[in-house]
TrEMBL record:
Gene: sugE
Name the UniProt record assigns to this protein: Guanidinium exporter
Organism listed in the record: Sphingoaurantiacus capsulatus
Topology within the bilayer: Multi-pass membrane protein
Alphabetized InterPro entries for the sequence: EmrE-like, Small_drug/metabolite_transptr, Small_multidrug_res
Entry's localization field: Cell membrane
Length: 106
């Protein structure tokens, strides 16, 4: 269950990052509410996951899901650049996440 919670926490990190962008510096109400709510639940699930997963693994996976997910949302939804170097960087992050999972005792 810790891994499932951690993945959900990472997905919520993508949501709050996107909502934060949409909030325009917390000047728009509903994107700001979504940002703060998703942050709270994401942090809570991360904390719960850390009860049984190593700190380094849990935090790395959480931030990695958020980073790669925000990168993908930026490209697909916001029209950000998808040049080969950025894609290679995202693939390296995914590779690191896979290695973290494989090396975790939990």
């Amino acid at each position: 269950m810790a891994w499932i919670s951690l993945v959900i926490a990472g997905l919520l990190e993508i949501l709050w990052a996107f909502s934060m962008k949409q909030s325009e510096g917390f000047t728009r109400l509903w994107p700001s509410v979504i940002t703060l709510s998703a942050m709270g639940v994401s942090f809570a699930l991360l904390a719960w996951s850390m009860r049984s997963l190593p700190l380094g693994t849990a935090y790395t996976v959480w931030t990695g899901i958020g980073a790669v997910g925000a990168f993908i949302v930026g490209i697909l939804v916001l029209g950000e650049s998808a040049n080969p170097l950025r894609i290679a960087a995202a693939l390296m992050i995914v590779g690191g996440l896979v290695l973290m999972k494989l090396s975790s005792p939990a």
